[in-house]
Amino acid sequence: MQMIHRELSAPPSRNALLSLITNSATIHHLLQLHAQLLRNGFHSDIATVTKLTQRLFDLRAPRHALSLFFSFPKPDIFLFNVLVQGFSLNASPSTSLSLYSRLRKSINLSPDNFTYAFTINAASGSRDEKHGMMLHAHAIVDGLAPNLFVGSALVDLYCKFSRVGYARKVFDRMPEKDTVLWNAMVNGLARNCCYEDSIEVFGDMVEDGVRLDSTTLATVLPAAAELKELGVGMGIQCLAMKIGFHSVDYVLTGLVSLYSKCGDVDTARLLFWMIDKPDLVSYNALISGFTCNGEVECSVKLFRELLASGQRVSSSTMVGLIPVSSPFGHLHLASSIQGFCVKSGTISHPSVSTALTTVYSRLNEMDLARSLFDESPEKTVAAWNAMISGYTQNGLTETSLSLFQEMMKTEFAPNPVTITTILSACAQLGALSFGKWVHELIKIKNLEPNIYVSTALVDMYAKCGNISEAWQLFDSMSEKNTVTWNTMIFGYGLHGHGHEALKLFNEMLHLGFQPSSVTFLSVMYACSHAGLVREGDEIFRAMINKYGIKPLPEHYACMVDILGRAGQLEKALEFIRSMPVEPGPAVWGTLLGACMIHKDTNMARMASEKLFELDPGSVGYHVLLSNIYSVERNFPKAASIREGVKKRKLAKTPGCTLVEIHGTPHVFVSGDRSHSHATAIYEMLEKLTSKMREIGYRSETVTALHDVEEEEKELMVNVHSEKLAIAFALITTEPGTEIRIIKNLRVCLDCHTATKYISKITERVIVVRDANRFHHFKDGVCSCGDYW
Predict the structure, then answer these.
(1) Res 715: pLDDT
(2) Segments of the chain with pLDDT less than 50
(3) pTM to 2 decimals?
(4) Helix 280-292 crosses helix 249-261 at what angle (to 10 degrees)?
(5) Residue 160 CB: number of other CB atoms within 10 A?
(6) Which residues pair with 666 in a beta bridge?
(7) How far apart are CA 743 and CA 181, in angstroms?
(8) Mean pLDDT over all residues of the chain?
(9) CA 765/CA 731 separation, integer angstroms
(10) Nearest to 774 by CA among 518, 398, 430
């Protein structure tokens, strides 16, 4: 301060004032210098006023800068640009846009390339897409759109608004490109999850001989990391070594993230220690790397080191520490992290509360998840998605649908993740009408082109019983991936259309899609439910020998099911004995189910002994063996097994059936009299039973307990939940309306037979989804051909 007074004891020169302005460290100093400008006649000197304006912005005094600007009689375009950029950088982009509007009205000044670049950046910061597009139009009219500064700003603008196509058009039409423009395109693509495109543009950049800088490398590394393309990442690393950027801290941080996401934590750790002074971002990268690779103890240890270093943690630190990808066994840790977040204040950050909500949901701690969600002061679409997904994944589908409806009343618009999650809930619940409503929403939001949304729609329609609509959607998709093909193949299998599933599988191979283990499981499942033994066997062998896919327990069980359903029990047993791995409960349970179908007591006894050893706590296998003895009329043995189940206090899942009437779900259990229409339901059931008996129906009481997923034998099979649901649908819908019901267990033989008769008597199409597949009943015939 004394130096300023000393230097200003005589009238100052312009250079002296410029030097003092540059070296000023406080706003108070700058205000004193402003007074000196006014006193010594420099208030109209453009260079001095511009320098003072810049320094005011540097010291975060935008209000003073604006006041100075308005006091100047004739600002030039440079001073305008300083002001526009200053407000953009000082979190007041709207002021920058207002200044641009003021400039457009000026008769003496016109915006230049810097004006457009700074104002476009302000539009990006204010999330004002329309203003940004208007600026683009103005730049075209003024002939400045081809300018490198303007072009780079436009690419960044469009990428921030996820208008990647527009950004790419701007980029491609630029007459010349520099490193900054290339970096903007590579970075914009990566930020919009267009990782493959980002790497492709980077490759073009290298091929064209464009000078790379450390920002280029740091920008493209996240794309390789997200794709888990370690080979590509190592190529970038070699390039960094070659051009001398490997030791740059943020390049090393990008490499830490790359190796972590590709599962090589040891190399990530070595790279971390190569960083001279690791900053918070570097720590966050390795903490997250340890966590996502299941090394939670190492993650916690590094987190403690970070705290000991005195650095303040961020919300990103906490998100990286929360064991989202490997939550099991870490409930106490999650609770401890939540406590720390509350104390540090990071719990208020949406990403932190969302990550904790996800962990609690995956641990099926839904009360904790919902409590955290409800208490979050700021909810985001990601937070809603996490909670809706948690309910869906834990089978609480009705709550999931209810929460989605609640979300639709807020200002938040569902994104593709929300839609795919809620469609999964509809598929689980069989809520076709709700699914159709979501489909209409998808059309309104123009989300049909999204491959994940379209695939989820195919899955929803298939699992809700409308296989023709599923096929139409699948057939109309311009883009398909392996998951899409798997979904349609499985849908056909679910409806017993084995030949269609096989045809689709062959078409998939012909078009060059690489089948996954799920593909083979889906097509084998279809073969199983259509009795295609030879085809199923060929596909199983091709999976191993031609495609090199190691069978999972589910594949072995499916192969046993293919043989067992077709009555080839000895071959099924031979197949089990030849397995290169020890057969588990799924395999022996499948064989036991086949023994029930074909009434082979001896093999059933042998399979049961294996199951009781491997899975002694499962009540289903005991019930199934009891059913087999019941079929043979060995009732003492059947009763003995059931008595053992009661003594061990094993509980079987109770059977229930859901039917949706006018968008409202109704659930029935066997013998249910709690429904408001109970009297009318039982009257209808009595009429139906009487008419069925007239044309030959006889109750199947012996085989009512059919397998591991069937209701326990009841004295009155005509009050099974399926029949109650069908009777209710008959009295509440118009004649000729298709009836759709969903059973949580496998439909029993008696209900299957009765439904055939009911479809004939009432001239209705009745679609039944049980735990195994769909049954389409029409004119007294079932689509399964009594093979289920």
Answers:
(1) 41
(2) 1-8, 703-716
(3) 0.77
(4) 10
(5) 19
(6) 659
(7) 59
(8) 89
(9) 15
(10) 430
